[in-house]
Specification:
The complex is a heterodimer.
Chain A lengths: L2 E10 L2 E11 L4 E5 L6 H8 L7 E6 L2 E2 L4 H7 E4 L11 H11 L4 H15 L14 H12 L6 E5 L7 H16 L3 E6 L2 H7 L2 E6 L2 E6 L1 H7 L4 E7 L4 H7 L6 E3 L2 E6 L2 H14 L4 E7 L3 H9 L3 H5 L1
Parallel strand pairs in A: 3-8, 3-9, 6-7, 7-8
Antiparallel strand pairs in A: 1-2, 1-4, 4-5, 9-10, 11-13, 11-14, 12-13
Chain B lengths: L2 H15 L1 H22 L7 E7 L5 H12 L3 E6 L2 H9 L5 E5 L3 H6 L4 E7 L4 H27 L8 E7 L8 H9 L2 H21 L2 H6 L4 H31 L7 H25 L3 H18 L11 H9 L1 H15 L7 H26 L2
Parallel strand pairs in B: 1-2, 1-3, 4-5
Antiparallel strand pairs in B: 3-4
The chains are: A alpha/beta, B alpha/beta.
């Protein structure tokens, strides 16, 4: 394990922000912390980045103890928080040079890292532009480039795509996948289930400072998210007849759409289709809907992720 | 709500919720008024150390004079048995004048003969020299009238005591320009350095960029040194502008000794910057830190003898002034420029400023860890 966290606890006054959290991250893995705002993700990440002190528990990063070897750990981590930590009045190159200086990077290594940032993160096109003249997406890319300018083996991203439009989000996911292909271990926090599902090898679902579940997204969905569902839409005039035909499948009618839970969705869908055709009922839509991480969160907490944030 | 009112209400609420800002906003006028009241709102607006060499020995007259000088309230007397030692203290500006009561003073005065009291004034500060001179002359004149009245009854029509004055250091009481320029050169050490460095940490924290620095393996002391270097550069620009303008526009007749002025100004700036960094570490918002720095700098200028001598302060405030490191910088600059002080003579200010800078940086690191990393 490149990161090992044991029974970590952090209080803010009387509030237990992180409540006995334990987990490990494998080298080269993309590990996600999924949960609503206030779940303790950011606090946990800031502890790992030596920005906050825990009240109890143990953290090992690359074999170094967080308390005794914090300076070695700091050198090994690239931290990219939600907010853009760039100086508006400096251009991107100057910002990267400043970040490099914090890690005592030599000029040769700095040049190599600029090349890397240009190739992998695409900052080359706006290297000489002042930060306050950049678009939001460019700023985020420059921010990520500055965070990993010292070529750390571990990259910690706190809600890296929050506030992005879908296109830029997808671009950013590609960047994160690129980092993984360069052997980086990525630990990211998000409250976007689709993001966690798409880019994370494993996900820890956090709720009220605790890890409620931890596994690969597919395993979580299968184990906790429940069965797959088949959604069927027919002509409005035939919906009642369809419900009668599919009575034995315990179907539920929601918004003129018939929903059926199925352990083996493909087999069930074939059966259903045959039955409906034999009764002369035409389907406008029939699809298998797999459980999502949202379903997992609902099963674990009894509410939707968005409700939890409210 | 009207947006103008909305903004005003929001800013006012923010102001009242930043307790530090509220504190410094109130503290500034209170401190200034208390200080002005302490300096000017009393009958005796001046107190200077005076050396006295009594060559006439212990007589009732000399005892009365010494008691009388002490009881004026404007002088604090230091007795010397040796005139050379007294003058040495004068040159070190530990006393502002040396009064020598000559041999046979009592006999001559009682015999109604003319007597000469010798006074050597410290000319390094024109205002002090004038006040001391005037105070001593007035005292002896009044003393003789009281002496005559006690021994003869009635008013004396002539005054046989002559106060012979001479001025040490420059040989003459220096002019206004020469008096004010050394004080002006303290301005960047106090204001520029503090103002520049006060924003250093607190603005980074406000903007969030401090996270980047804190997440890196840079030691807090190096963070403070990095900030110091930038502040020192900006302060140096201020110093160079001040020195150039003072030299060109005012052309004062002073000793511009760069070899001695540079280390004093460097250490003075380091003290100002370190103090600014300390404030910056404590400040919870840029506004609060800025208010604190402005208040402290303005108050300090009265204590350190920048524009007027610290003898203007009541003696208890003078004691405060004497423990403020910047006072040593201001005094050393004046000594170098006015009295042509040597390296040996400014050794004490150099040492004091070095030690205080180290102490301030240690405090800065502790506060950085306590407040910034909290």
């Amino acid at each position: 394990m490149i990161i090992e966290v044991e029974e970590l606890v952090k209080y803010y006054g009387d509030v237990k922000a992180v409540d006995g959290v334990s987990f490990g991250v494998e080298e080269g893995e993309t590990f996600g912390l999924l949960g609503p705002n206030g779940a303790g993700k950011t606090t946990l990440m800031e502890i790992l980045c030596c920005l906050r002190k825990s009240d109890s528990g143990k953290v090992n990063v690359l074999g170094y103890d967080l308390v005794n070897d914090s300076y070695k750990i700091r050198s090994s981590i690239g931290f990219c928080p939600q907010e853009t930590l760039l100086y508006d009045l400096l251009n991107v190159h100057e910002n990267l040079a400043f970040s490099a200086s914090l890690y005592s990077l030599g000029s040769k290594k700095f040049k190599e890292r600029i090349d890397f940032s240009t190739k992998v993160l695409g900052v080359g096109e706006f290297l000489t532009r002042r930060v306050d003249k950049l678009s939001g997406g460019m700023k985020r890319r420059a921010n990520l480039a500055a965070s990993i300018i010292h070529d750390p083996p571990i990259v910690i991203l706190d809600e890296p795509t929050v506030g992005f439009d879908p296109t830029i989000k997808r671009e950013f996911w590609e960047l994160i996948k690129n980092l993984k292909s360069y052997g980086k271990t990525v630990l990211l926090s998000t409250h976007d289930m689709y993001e966690a599902d798409t880019i994370c090898d494993r996900v820890a679902i956090m709720e009220k400072g605790k890890i409620a579940a931890l596994d690969k997204p597919d395993v979580l969905k299968k184990k906790i998210g429940g069965e797959s569902a088949i959604h069927i839409r027919t002509k409005d005039t035939q919906t009642k007849d369809a419900c009668k035909v599919l009575e034995k499948y315990n179907c539920v009618l929601t918004d003129n759409e018939i929903q059926i839970s199925a352990e083996n969705p493909w087999e069930t869908m074939t059966e259903i289709s045959s039955k409906l055709i034999s009764k002369g009922i035409l389907t406008e839509k029939i699809e298998i809907v797999e459980p999502t991480l949202e379903d997992v969160f609902i099963k674990l907490s009894g509410r939707r992720l968005t409700e939890a944030e409210e | 709500m009207n947006p103008i009112i909305g903004i005003a209400v929001k800013d006012t609420k923010t102001f009242f919720r930043e307790r530090g800002t509220v504190f410094w906003t109130i503290a500034f006028p209170v401190m200034i008024m208390l200080l002005f009241t302490a300096i000017f709102g009393r009958d005796i607006p001046f107190n200077a150390n005076i050396g006295i060499v009594n060559e006439d020995g212990q007589t009732p007259v000399t005892a009365e004079i010494i008691t009388g000088l002490n009881s004026t309230g404007i002088f604090t007397l230091k007795n010397f048995t040796d005139r050379t030692e007294a003058l040495r203290e004068l040159n070190a500006t530990n006393v502002r004048a040396v009064i020598t009561i000559p041999q046979n003073f009592t006999n001559d005065l009682c015999g109604e003969q003319n007597v000469n009291v010798s006074v050597v004034l410290d000319g390094s500060n024109a205002d002090v020299a004038r006040l001391v001179s005037s105070g001593i002359s007035t005292f002896f004149s009044r003393y003789y009238r009281s002496f005559y009245s006690a021994t003869h009854g009635g008013e004396a029509y002539s005054d046989p005591i002559t106060v012979n004055e001479e001025v040490s250091a420059t040989g003459q009481i220096i002019g206004y320009k020469e008096n004010i320029v050394p004080g002006m050169l303290c301005y960047p050490l106090l204001f520029s350095s503090m103002v520049v460095s006060t924003g250093a940490i607190v603005y980074e924290r406000e903007k969030g960029t401090l996270k980047k620095i804190r997440a890196s393996p840079v030691h807090p002391l190096n963070v403070l040194f990095g900030k110091t270097l930038a502040a020192l550069f900006q302060t140096t620009i201020s110093i160079l502008i001040m020195v150039t303008l003072a030299y060109v526009l005012l052309a004062p007749k002073l000793n511009w000794n760069p070899a001695l002025l540079a280390p004093i100004m460097f250490l003075g700036s380091m003290n100002g910057i370190a103090l600014g960094l300390v404030i910056s570490c404590i400040g919870r918002s840029p506004q609060e830190a800025s208010n604190a720095a402005t208040t402290i700098a303005i108050v300090l200028q009265f204590f350190i003898g920048m524009y007027f001598p610290i003898e203007y302060l009541p003696s208890y405030l003078q004691q405060i002034g004497r423990v403020i490191p910047m006072t040593y910088a201001a005094q050393a600059i004046r000594d170098i420029m006015v009295r042509n002080a040597t390296l040996g003579e400014i050794a004490l200010p150099l040492t004091t400023l070095t030690i205080s800078a180290i102490v301030l940086y240690v405090i800065g690191v502790l506060l950085y860890r306590r407040w910034v990393e909290k």
